[in-house]
Each structure stands twice: as C-alpha cells, then as structure tokens.
C-alpha cells in the first residue's frame, strides 16, 4: 500500500476544515496536486500545502492509498470525510467529524477526537486510542437515518449522544459514557465497557445496548425480563436483560412486539 | 425598459392556436408588442422553442407551513444544496428550497407566475414576507376558507351575501387572491382530533357538512365574480378507495355557472387529483381509478384539475389537511409538525420518501401520469406536483418528459422493484399517448392562466400581454430521440424574459427582475352585520387584534391589484 | 391634545401582546402613559424616553475610553472589520424586528459570517428536538379557546411572561372554555414551588435534572405498562393520576421552558415531551409550545429558515452554501473554542448572558454592539452603535412565541439621526459592496420605505 505522510507545519489561527484529507481525494494524485487541494479556514480558502509538508506517494486507487498524519490535528476538522476505502492514521489528536459520513476504509487516531466522530457512518472502521467528545456515531441533525454500518471503537471515554438514531453497525466505548445512549435508535449495537450515568435507550425502538459497568439511573421504560450469559467483545459474563423503551412505539413481528434490548452486567 | 426582439423561434401559443410556426416576438416596456425599433436587443431563437412564461396553479412555496418544513428538516439541506451563483443569494434545500432558490429555480425553468396554494389568514403577513423574499416570479396566495368559523355560520344560515362580504374583507385584509378549500370541515374537526371523511359528516359544533361548505363557497365565489374559481383539496385525501368521494364532490359543480369578467369558464378547480383517485380498500388492494375520475372531468366542462404527480423523491408533505398529516406520521413514524390556527384552519408537515421499491409509491407515480394522459382537454388539466407534497416543483421537466415519452415511462416502470404489481394495479403500461409540446404549453401556460382569470396577462404571446417568454432548446421539427433531452431543455431555459426583462441566459440567472404580488380586491356594498361580526370575533375568539391582523402595504411593495366592483 | 394609540405591540416577552394602548404627547415625541401593559412592558415605553440614551456611536480609543463618532465612521469600521475577519460571528436579535434580521442576513452572507440568535443559549435545544421529532403545536388562541388541561413544564409564566396566563393559558374565557380558570386543570412540573406552581391543581416537584425520566414514565404509563414506585422523585400514584388527567382531557396544552432546555439532556427533554404529545394524540387532542423568551425571538428562526433553511447557528463562511450543526456552529461553542475572530452583538447583551470564558475569548478580537441602550456588552465593546427601539420608535413584523406574525407599530419618533437596525445594516452592506467593488443585491427596489405604514396609523 502506498503511503502519503502529512506533517503539520503550522497551527491555524482558527480551525482548518480539511474535507480533502481522504484516500478518495489523494488517490492517483502527485504530491503537488495533493498540496494544491482546497481546505478552509473560516471563509479563507487555503491549500493543504499551506499547512502540511506532504511526502510519500499516493496509491493508484483509493484502496491502495494510506495517509499518515505525523502530528497534532487538534484544530483540523473533517479528516476522513465521506471516505470509501484506504486508511488514515493520525499520530495525535483530531478535531470534529473524524470519519463523518464514512463508507469504508480505516481510521486510526492515536490521541483524542472531538465531537461528531463517525457521524452518519455507513461502513468502515474508526479506532480512537484516547477519548471522544459528544455525538459519537450519531445522526446529522434532523435525519432519522443515523449510523448504518461499520465499527467505531473509542478506547477511552465518551460524552453524550452516542449512536442517536442508529440503524446498524457497532459502537464500543471502552471506558465511561455520560448520558443518552442509542436515543431513538432502530438498530445497531452499542457496548459501553465502563459506567454510564443514565438515559440509556430512551425512545429506542430496536437494537442492542450492552453496559459492562453500571447504569446509575435506569429509565422507567425499561423492564427486566431475565438474565443471560453472553460473550461481549471478549468478555464472557452474565447480564441482566431489560427490554424497552416501553414508552416508545415498537414494530410487530409475527404478532409480537419487538423491543430494544439493554444488557447490564450483573454485579 | 429596453426593447427585445426574439427572432426565428418555433412559437407555440395555444391561445392563438399557433403550433410551432417560425415567428418573431417583439417586446417593449414589459409587454408583447407588434414590432420594435432597429436598436432592440435581438435574441436568436433559431431552432428553439418559444413559449409564454410558465404558470403554476398550485404550489406550497411561501408561508408558515412551508417554513416549518424548512426549519424542521436540516437534512433536506445537507449535501443537497447546490452552490450559489456568484453575486446571487445563497440557495438552500431540495424538497423545500429557500425563498431565494425557489425564485431562481422557477425562473430557470421559465416560469413567470406561481400561486401559493394555501395561506392561513392569521399568518398572512408571514406569507407576504416570504413572497417578498422570493425573487423574480410574480406570486399570489389563496387564503383558506373551508374551516373558518365565519364561513360556517354564514353558510349554515344560507347567507351567501354575508359570506361574500366577509370574504371580500378578508381578501383585502390578507392581500389574497381567491377561495381555497382544504378538507372542508375536516380540518375544523381536527381541532378536536377528529375528521370529516365523507361529504355528509357534520362538523362538530357547527351543524354544517362538507357538501354544504363546498356548494356554499362555490356560490359565494360566483356571487363575487372572482378571477379564479373555488380551488378545492377534497375530503379523504390519500386513502385507498377515495375516488368515490372525489367524484361525489366534483358532481357538486353540476349546474353551477361561471360568472365573472376574467374569461374564466370553470367553477371548481380540483387540485392534486392524483391523491384523490385511488381504488382498493387497503394498501394491499390499492389501485388506480384515474380513468373513472378523468372520464368525469373530461365531460364536466366547468371543472379544471391539476395532477399532483408523484416524482419518486424524498420530499416533505405539508397541507392544511391537519388530520391527514397525523395519519401519515402514524404510517411512516417520521417527525410531525402540526399547527392549528384559531378560528380558521390548521396545517401539518411530515417528511415522506416515495421509494421506487415500494409498490404503493409506484402506483401513485403511475396514477398522476395516467390522469395527464387521459385528459381530453389539456386547457383544463394542469401539471403540478402539489409541491412539495408529491415531489418538488423542480421535477416539472421530468413530468413533462414522462408525459411526452412512452419510452421514458417504460424505463422508469422497469426500474421498480415491483414492476408487475404496479402494472397490474394501473393502466400506464398500456397507454401509448405521448403529449405534444402544444399540449404541454396548454397544461403549463394557457390553461392555468385561463383558470386563474389571468389569461389577459399570462399564458400566451398576444400583443398587449405580459412579456414573459421562455426559450427552450427543442427543435419542433427534429425532437430529440433521447427523452432525457426533453427534461434537460425544460430544466434550464436558454433564455427567460420576465415582464420584458432578461432573467435567465443559458440556464443561469442574470437579473433579479421586478417581481409583483398579485391580489384581488372585490368592492362590495358596506355590510354592517359582517363588520360587527368581525369586531366581535376579534374580541372574543382571536388572540390578536383586528388591526394587527391586516397586512401592511409595505409588505407587498410591488403590488398588482385586481380591483373591481361586485354587482349585488 | 395627547392621543391614545391602540392595538400597540409590546416589545418585551414572547407573549408579544398587541393590545396595549399608549398615550402620546401632542408633538408625537413623548410617551405619557400606557394601558394594559405589564410592569416591564410599561417600563420599556418609558425607558425609551430616557435623556441619557446614546444618540451617536461610540468607539473605543487607544487609552480605553469611548469617544462619540459619526454613523458613517461606525458603518465604515463595521464593514471593514467584517470583511477582514476570517470567521465573524453575528449574534443576538432578541430585540429587533424581522426587517432588521433580514438586513443582517444579507450582511452576514456578504461577510462570510456565522449567523446566530439568542435561541442558541435559550430555546436552541427546542430546535434540535423539532429537527428530530417535529412540533405538534397550535396558535395561542387555540389554547385559549379549547385547552381544558394545561401543563407548565419547567416554565414560570407568572414571572417570565406576565400576561400569558391571563391572555392565553389559565384565566381567559374562550369559545369552548367559557368559565375561564374553572374550565381548566393546571399541571405544573417544576423542582421549585414557583408562583405558577402555586396556581396549579397538580404540582409535580420533579427531581432536578430528571425530567427525561419523568416524561418516559408518562409515556410508559400511557401505553399501559407498569413503572417503578417512584420516578424522578415523584410517587407512582401521582404520575398515574396526572397521566389520567391528560388522557381524559379534551385538549391538552403543554407549555415548556428553560427548565427543560437547560438541564442535562437539553434537547432530549423537549424531544421526549414532543413524543408524549404525539402519544396523547392517540387518546385526545394535544399540543405543545415552547415558551419563547423575547417578543421576536421566534423571528430569526422564521426569517433565516426561509432565507437559508436553518433557524440558527448558520455558518455562511463557505460563501457557496449554508451549514448548520449546533455543537459546532453554535455561538458559545464557537467562542469557547476560539473559532471566530470578530463578534457583532445585535439587540441583546452577550456581555451579561455568555459564560465569562466565552466573553474572554471573544474579547481577543474586534467586538461590536448594536443596541439602543447601554448594556454590559456595549461597555466592553470596541464600538457601540445605537439604533431605534422596535415597537416604540420603529414598526415592523415580529413573531410571537406561537410563530404568529404580529405587526408592531411605532408610537413616537426616534431620536434624530438614529437609524433602525434595518437602515443601519443596509448601510453596512452598501459599504461592504463599495469596499469589495461589487454590486449590491436588492430583491426589490429600496424605495419601499415604511412611510406607508406610519401613515396607516
């Protein structure tokens, strides 16, 4: 796989919107052409070459293109925006929208990410070694079609609104989460390996949530139905099985209502 | 204003029965004239089609429910907003475009006039603020009357004269155009969570039925002699088997004669008739009844219709038929906005996806086109999508393509998941008719202009008429074999001249023109009872003052007022 | 003879009362007396007369003092500052008319700015909920005429909207509510015993921050399922009783306020309130309404929705299309993250309302305030430009909390030479066009001054 290395050369005064840092935009381009790709700082149109030293070689196809960012991208948005294949590695933090509207390929962030990581994702993999802010794998405002596929793994903790309006795919938060997990979801799986404060599965229609830590405040719309043993992301354990949100509408299958499932580790 | 000469185009003007003759069109001071001087700007239209500016009889483009749709659907903008033309206002949205985009897009398609199809009177200042911000096109708005307490009380007592005096007052107060009827009685019932699904369901607390409301408003319309006929969205929209109630309400026009000085022959305009021509008794047995409805429309000459064609897009439904929107949200579970408006009306908004993979969507698509293809009189059958309900108005060129090309219809039909089931439930597959450019000009220009009582201004290219002219890249003697070329030609006019000013060149906007707000001011004799009733209702039932209610003149800064005296 | 002007709109709260009467002096320059206004509304009409009101822009000097400058100079500075910034933020609009909002939108588009309004720190979460779940609502006259059960959730109109309960929600005698308060059952959900709670038949003292849980309990009960013995600090029986009252009503009206939008979960509290309203419509008729704060804070949500498709947090910096995503494009987030380099505060007081850290960030860059009065924001600004007071000296369209347009009047002339927001921003726009050598875009000729409106009175 051919690799392009981007080395940040200066910190933008405001924030950079680098919607072109994707294997899709880089594939088949020369270093000069890549340096000439557009980005925005506020209303000022800039070039990637203004902010990054660009080395290496791009692949002939998107699949064959790997991008490595050697440095901090705390003020860079939209890395991996709408990417369909290839890979991106960020040796540092990244700002908002990492892997937003992503359809395929892999993104690996060594540091933390800000909000809207994996927003409206359809496929591919995102791995974040650090923490994520809010709205991991959520839908865009107003859209009832949230995350549809792919996997997001946050090795640290995450904030609120994880998997809002989720329809498919998997989100794993290895540490704690704040509030609102899978709100309005109609599919997909969210695994929280730490603790979560509350509002887990509110207005949820279908889908699965696993909490391997504790839920501080359970919603009244979730009802305990039993106990199951299951292996989840490498952990084999006994979970208390709840169904809900009983306050929400639910589809019927073979005459029976289909609920969302919440599994909480039995302590 | 500069003089313009459009040379050598194939002119299609149904108002003078001109069908593709090569001729010149001369323009001066915003009007069509006999001839212009040597210094006139010459536009070479050789090999191209020249038609009057388009007239849209029914679209939801300005006002509170349109804006609720814009507000509640950010996803309708995401990755869907085209990039702005340099030095023009930004353009936003697909199914419910921003006001700027609305004006620009209509102009790009060569449209000169658009009727906002439902204005809640209480929100009239809002409607006019949006019309003000919609560039280029001339617009008017139809206030809704069929769930209004004044109207109920006057019609229940058979007081046509009082209803007329009230409607005349309201048209002036709201700068409105005519009488719009939406789910008569049903929307008023919705204020209590109910509906009127037949013509004889009494309206709760008002002791009147939908049939009486329709008949009464039709009579009031002719008493006033308004330019447009009563414009109706019937009861029981969108439900399997509703074609019977549709026929029943159309029959109410029998024996009612048009009385006006605006060249209008019709007394009822039945809008988005596709939504009202359904057979079957469930979604499983859902089928087309386009033929039954059109057979009646074809022989009943005092009725006009518009199609309301489904375009197979993700769109936004919005209507003053409040109970229907509640019904839709219960079907598709998507977000639902509702606004009940005191004393007058209601409205609802729900996003909707007409999916090629869903049988019912395919059947709805077929029904809309069938109605156009069954039409015996294109002067009474108009192309619409009930924008944005069955699809956005920007799809008119695609509908024209489907109506003009069996090949295009078959290609779409073949792309469905349930092609065979759609064919079984409809007649479209067996219909070979392909409409001509002349018939398209009738359905989009001459016909709607006549039904609106605007045939003196719009719809034709006679001397003295408003100089709104579209030039399209279609050679009438050598029509393209690829139907896509028809859609492309109508999507972006080569030239569009609006009221004598060049607005579009090669599909791009080049001027903001000088749009007008058209409204109707019938002068009736002073009616003390109605004045008392108005004062009384504003004190007791409304939450605003009667003075606050009336639209200030500056909100319609370039008005075209149709003022006339009503003979008692 | 002094003259009474009737049906005057009140430029205070979101109830946007239009039944005020104002006594104006012979010369049409002074307000002498008002009728029907609440104490605050009355004060606004009198305060506009204050001799200490600024009548010229004031520019910060190198020594830190403020010096009066001409409007031309202030307009030139504003135009140049907006053009020079990479990402300006124009925020506010709690107190101006729609004409002003429209004029500002044109400036923002030209300047590649982010356009935001006070909803961002107030009912913005309600917009997020509307995006996700819709808004089954009605006009206030419907509440007056029909509602027999009225729920106040996280709002206290007795203080925040002084005439709301008498005009629309508790006391008025409407068409189908002829006995006024006697017809209505009032439910109040609030952690505190507010003055509105004191009027209620049922007061549910929800545990602070647990509104979402309580909404979920109501929904669960309405679908016939059991709930725990206590939810959000409220005993099950109380919840069952209140649910029954709502279910058996003929028309339920739910008003909610910042108690929902400004506790944990924010938009989700409103979102599930909307879900509850939807659910209730399976049993009876139900409507919900945000208790919007200012008399025209619903205005920018309307004007900018029709112009750009979004009600707030509108990022116009790309020049080609508008982008909105609160959490990113919202004023506080932009300020806190240091994402903007110029701030224009219009018809509000960001100095008083924003978190101090946000204000500190904003103060690193040019800071301009447009407001009739001296306020905290004006006093920390680099430039303060006074304008006429809408509803007193300037007519125009405003949107009430139920999005009904109300056409406000002017009752007296403004101070000589002081422009309206609309006039000011149109001049800023023209100056920006001059500086960039571009043609201004006017949709219609600008000769439609409101002279006609003034004459109508």
Automatic annotation (TrEMBL), chain A:
EC main group: oxidoreductase
Top-level division of the source organism's lineage: Archaea
Signal peptide start-end: none
Molecular function terms, GO-annotated: formylmethanofuran dehydrogenase activity
EC number of the protein: 1.2.7.12
InterPro entries according to UniProt: Formylmethanofuran_DH_suC, Glu_synth_asu_C_sf
Reactions mediated catalytically: N-formylmethanofuran + 2 oxidized [2Fe-2S]-[ferredoxin] + H2O = methanofuran + 2 reduced [2Fe-2S]-[ferredoxin] + CO2 + H(+)
UniProt pathway annotation: One-carbon metabolism; methanogenesis from CO(2); 5,10-methenyl-5,6,7,8-tetrahydromethanopterin from CO(2): step 1/3
Classification via Gene3D superfamilies: Glutamate synthase, alpha subunit, C-terminal domain (2.160.20.60)
Family annotation (PANTHER family): TUNGSTEN FORMYLMETHANOFURAN DEHYDROGENASE, SUBUNIT C (FWDC), TUNGSTEN-CONTAINING FORMYLMETHANOFURAN DEHYDROGENASE 2 SUBUNIT C
UniProt-recorded name of the protein: formylmethanofuran dehydrogenase
Organism for this UniProt entry: Methanocalculus taiwanensis
From TrEMBL, chain B:
Molecular function in Gene Ontology: hydrolase activity
UniProt xrefs under InterPro entries: Amidohydro_3, Formylmethanofuran_DH_asu, Metal-dep_hydrolase_composite, Metal_Hydrolase, Metallo-dep_Hydrolases_sf
Residue span(s) of domain Amidohydrolase: 41-489
UniProt xrefs under Gene3D superfamilies: Urease, subunit C, domain 1
Domain of life: Archaea
Pfam family, one: Amidohydro_3
PANTHER family associated with the record: COLLAPSIN RESPONSE MEDIATOR PROTEIN, HYDRANTOINASE/DIHYDROPYRIMIDINASE FAMILY MEMBER
Name listed for the protein in its UniProt record: Formylmethanofuran dehydrogenase subunit A
TrEMBL record, chain C:
PANTHER family: FORMATE DEHYDROGENASE H, RESPIRATORY NITRATE REDUCTASE
Taxonomic lineage from the root: Archaea, Methanobacteriati, Methanobacteriota, Stenosarchaea group, Methanomicrobia
Keyword Iron recorded: no
Cytoplasm recorded as keyword: no
Highest taxon, organism lineage: Archaea
NCBIfam families: one_C_dehyd_B
Keyword vocabulary terms for this entry: Oxidoreductase
GO molecular function, one term: oxidoreductase activity
Entry-linked SUPFAM superfamilies: Formate dehydrogenase/DMSO reductase, domains 1-3
Protein name per UniProt: Formylmethanofuran dehydrogenase subunit B
Species annotation: Methanocalculus taiwanensis
InterPro entries: Formylmethanofuran_DH_bsu (IPR016457), Mopterin_OxRdtase (IPR006656), Prok_molybdopt-oxidoreductase (IPR050123)
Molybdopterin oxidoreductase domain boundaries: 55-264
């Amino acid at each position: 796989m051919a690799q392009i290395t981007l080395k940040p050369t200066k910190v933008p005064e405001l924030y950079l919107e680098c919607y072109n840092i994707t294997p899709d935009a880089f594939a088949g381009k020369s270093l000069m052409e890549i340096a000439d790709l557009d980005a925005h700082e506020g209303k000022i149109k800039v070039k990637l070459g203004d902010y990054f030293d660009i080395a290496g070689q791009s692949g002939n196809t998107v699949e064959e293109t790997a991008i490595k960012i050697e440095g901090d991208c705390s003020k860079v948005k939209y890395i991996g925006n709408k990417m369909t294949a290839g890979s991106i590695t960020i040796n540092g933090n990244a700002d908002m929208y990492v892997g937003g509207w992503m359809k395929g390929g892999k993104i690996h962030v060594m540091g933390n990410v800000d909000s809207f990581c994996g927003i409206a994702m359809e496929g591919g993999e995102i791995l974040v070694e650090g923490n994520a802010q809010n709205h991991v794998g959520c839908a865009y405002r107003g859209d009832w079609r949230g995350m549809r596929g792919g996997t997001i793994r946050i090795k640290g903790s995450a904030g609120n609104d994880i998997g809002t309006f989720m329809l498919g795919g998997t989100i794993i938060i290895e540490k704690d989460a704040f509030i609102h997990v899978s709100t309005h979801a109609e599919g997909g799986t969210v695994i929280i390996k730490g603790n979560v404060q509350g509002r887990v599965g509110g207005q949820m229609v279908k889908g699965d949530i696993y909490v391997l830590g504790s839920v501080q405040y359970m919603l009244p719309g979730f009802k305990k139905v039993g106990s199951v043993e299951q292996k989840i992301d490498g952990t084999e354990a006994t979970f208390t099985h709840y169904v809900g949100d009983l306050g929400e509408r639910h589809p019927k299958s073979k005459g029976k209502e289909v609920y969302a499932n919440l599994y909480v580790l039995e302590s | 204003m500069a003089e313009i000469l459009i040379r050598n185009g194939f002119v299609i003007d149904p108002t003078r029965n001109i069908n593709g003759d090569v001729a010149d069109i001369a323009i001066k001071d915003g009007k069509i004239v006999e001839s212009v001087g040597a210094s006139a700007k010459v536009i070479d239209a050789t090999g191209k089609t020249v038609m009057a500016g388009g007239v849209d009889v029914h679209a939801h483009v300005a006002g509170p429910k349109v804006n609720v749709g814009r507000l509640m659907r950010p996803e309708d903008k995401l990755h869907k907003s085209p990039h702005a033309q340099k030095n023009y206002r930004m353009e936003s949205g697909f199914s419910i475009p921003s006001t700027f985009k609305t004006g620009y897009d209509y102009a790009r398609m060569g449209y000169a006039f658009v009727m906002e199809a439902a204005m809640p009177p209480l929100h009239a200042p809002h409607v006019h603020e949006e019309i003000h911000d919609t560039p280029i096109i001339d617009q008017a708005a139809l206030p809704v009357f069929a769930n209004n307490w004044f109207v109920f009380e006057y019609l229940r007592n058979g007081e046509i004269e009082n209803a007329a005096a009230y409607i005349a007052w309201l048209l002036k107060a709201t700068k409105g155009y005519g009488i719009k009827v939406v789910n008569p009685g049903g929307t008023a019932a919705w204020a209590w969570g109910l509906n009127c699904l037949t013509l004889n369901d009494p309206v709760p607390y008002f002791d009147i039925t939908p049939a009486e409301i329709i008949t009464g408003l039709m009579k009031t319309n002719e008493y006033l002699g308004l330019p447009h006929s009563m414009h109706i969205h019937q009861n029981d929209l969108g439900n399997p088997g509703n074609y019977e109630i549709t026929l029943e309400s159309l029959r109410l026009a029998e024996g009612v004669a048009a009385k006006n000085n605006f060249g209008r022959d019709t007394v009822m305009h039945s809008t988005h008739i596709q939504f009202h021509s359904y057979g079957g008794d469930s979604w499983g047995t859902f089928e087309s009844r386009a033929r039954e409805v059109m057979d009646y429309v074809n022989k009943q000459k005092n009725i006009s219709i518009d199609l309301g064609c489904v375009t197979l897009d993700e769109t936004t439904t919005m209507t003053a038929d409040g109970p229907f929107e509640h019904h839709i949200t219960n079907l598709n579970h998507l977000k639902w906005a509702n606004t009940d408006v005191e004393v007058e009306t209601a409205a609802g908004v729900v996003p909707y996806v007409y999916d090629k993979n869903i049988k019912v969507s395919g059947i709805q698509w077929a029904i809309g086109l069938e109605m156009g293809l069954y039409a015996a009189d294109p002067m009474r059958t108009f192309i619409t999508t009930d924008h944005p309900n069955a699809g956005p108005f920007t799809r008119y060129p695609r509908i024209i393509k489907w109506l003009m090309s069996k090949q295009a219809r078959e290609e779409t039909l073949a792309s469905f998941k349930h092609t065979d089931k759609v064919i079984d439930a409809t007649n479209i597959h067996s219909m070979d008719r392909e409409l001509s450019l002349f018939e398209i000009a009738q359905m989009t220009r001459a016909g709607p202009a006549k039904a609106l009582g605007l045939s003196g201004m719009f719809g034709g290219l006679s001397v003295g008429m408003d100089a709104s002219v579209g030039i399209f890249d279609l050679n009438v003697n050598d029509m393209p074999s690829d139907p896509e070329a028809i859609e492309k030609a109508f999507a972006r006019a080569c030239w569009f001249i609006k009221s004598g000013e060049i607005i579009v060149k090669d599909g791009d906007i080049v001027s903001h023109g000088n749009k007008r707000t058209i409204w109707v001011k019938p002068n009736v004799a002073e009616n003390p009872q109605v004045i008392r009733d108005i004062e009384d209702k504003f004190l007791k039932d409304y939450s605003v003052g009667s003075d606050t209610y009336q639209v200030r003149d500056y909100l319609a800064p370039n008005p075209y007022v149709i003022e006339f005296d009503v003979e008692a | 003879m002094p003259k009474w002007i009737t049906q005057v709109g009140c430029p205070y709260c979101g109830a946007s009362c239009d039944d005020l009467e104002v006594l104006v002096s012979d010369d049409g320059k002074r307000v002498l007396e008002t009728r029907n206004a609440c104490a605050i509304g009355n004060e606004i009409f009198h305060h506009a007369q204050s001799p200490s009101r600024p009548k010229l822009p004031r520019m910060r000097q190198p020594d830190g003092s403020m010096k009066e400058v001409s409007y031309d100079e202030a307009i030139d500075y504003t135009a140049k500052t907006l053009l020079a910034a990479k990402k300006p933020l124009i925020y506010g609009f709690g107190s101006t008319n729609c004409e002003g909002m429209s004029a500002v939108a044109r400036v923002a588009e030209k300047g590649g700015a982010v356009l935001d309004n006070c909803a961002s720190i107030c009912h913005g979460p309600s917009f997020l909920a509307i995006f996700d779940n819709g808004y089954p609502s009605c006009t206030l006259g419907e509440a007056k005429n029909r509602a027999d059960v009225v729920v106040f959730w996280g709002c206290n109109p007795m203080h925040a909207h002084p005439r709301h309960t008498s005009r629309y929600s508790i006391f008025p005698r409407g068409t189908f509510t002829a006995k006024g308060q006697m017809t209505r059952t009032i439910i109040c959900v609030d952690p505190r015993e507010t003055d509105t709670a004191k009027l209620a038949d049922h007061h549910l003292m929800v545990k602070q921050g647990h509104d979402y849980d309580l909404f979920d309990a109501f929904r669960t009960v309405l679908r016939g399922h059991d709930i725990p013995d206590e939810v959000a600090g409220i005993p099950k029986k109380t919840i069952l009783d209140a649910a029954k009252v709502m279910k058996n009503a003929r028309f339920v009206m739910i008003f909610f306020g910042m108690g929902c939008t400004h506790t944990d979960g924010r938009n989700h509290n409103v979102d599930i309130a909307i879900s509850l309203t939807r659910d209730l419509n399976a049993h009876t008729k139900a409507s919900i309404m945000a208790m919007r704060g200012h008399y025209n804070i619903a205005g920018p949500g309307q004007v900018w929705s029709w112009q750009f498709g979004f009600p707030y947090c509108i990022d116009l910096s790309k020049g080609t299309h508008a982008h909105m995503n609160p959490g990113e494009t919202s004023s506080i987030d932009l300020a806190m993250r240091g994402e903007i380099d110029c701030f224009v505060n219009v018809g509000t007081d960001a100095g008083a309302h924003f978190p101090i850290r946000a204000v500190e960030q904003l103060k690193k860059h040019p800071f301009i305030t447009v407001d009739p009065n001296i306020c905290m924001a004006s006093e920390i600004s680099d430039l303060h430009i006074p304008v006429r007071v809408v509803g007193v000296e300037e007519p125009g369209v405003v949107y009430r909390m139920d999005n009904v347009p109300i056409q406000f009047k002017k009752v007296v002339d403004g101070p000589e030479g002081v422009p309206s927001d609309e006039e000011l921003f149109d001049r800023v726009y023209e100056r920006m066009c001059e500086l960039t050598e571009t043609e201004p875009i006017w949709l219609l000729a600008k000769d439609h001054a409101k002279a006609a409106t003034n004459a109508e009175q």
